[in-house]
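FORM 7B - TANDEM STRUCTURE REPORT

SECTION 1: FIRST PROTEIN
SEQUENCE AND TOKENS:
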Amino acid sequence: MSLDAKTRDAITPAQALQMLKEGNQRFREGQMSQRDLRNEVQDTSGGQWPFAAVVGCIDSRAPAELVFDQGTGDIFSARVAG
């Protein structure tokens, strides 16, 4: 998605939650978005404007970007133990 600051700031909390729910639905159905990681990293080299912060487990089997079908820089993912 690669948001800019203006677009990110226009997203309401309800819209952000809906975006995460829709991404998780795609993940559960195996219909995840096709992504080009190299291109996403280049697109975000000048900055990132995540629309949500997700606190999750440090377990590498469940990275929030995958579980919510989001791209590089779309969410801030804080992973903690316990």
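SECTION 2: SECOND PROTEIN
SEQUENCE AND TOKENS:
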Amino acid sequence: INTARSKDDTRRALGGSAGVNVEESVVIGRPVEELYRFWRNLENLPRFMRHLESVERITDTLSRWRAHGPGGTIVEWTAEIINEVPSKVIGWRSIEGSEVVSAGSVNFDSVGPTQTRVRVRLQYSPPGGKVGAALARLVGRDAATEIREDLRRFKQLIEAGKQV
């Protein structure tokens, strides 16, 4: 993979008016390290992100994502972690050739000994055609609302103490 070229492709696809930008956050009553560790195990994400069918670890930095689309369709893409600071941030982007062009980050900021602000930033650009329409309905109903609901479910799951 030509990383410089594929990063430019992602940047170009998400730049200007082409990309949709979303930022949402929630404060959760758990220590930062615990939340980071749970999220970093990407296979946990479908437990609170309803649109995800699965996230499969390929390597430590590559993962394969499957999401539910409308009418029983499935949208798939491969994502790469491009920035990681343990207990602080996980940044990712879809790799070249994926059905979905996206990039984003999740930040973990301690706001007290047992309080953590989890902030998700997401940029995405649905591809054209049938897959693009499916993704637009999947995420685009209102991407901010989707992420806000995901974070609310994450908070409930974690604060309830269900197998972290």
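SECTION 3: OBSERVATIONS ON SECOND PROTEIN
Strands lie at 20-28, 52-57, 62-68, 74-85, 89-94, 101-112, 115-125.
The longest helix spans residues 143-159.

SECTION 4: SIGNATURE
Preparer initials: ____
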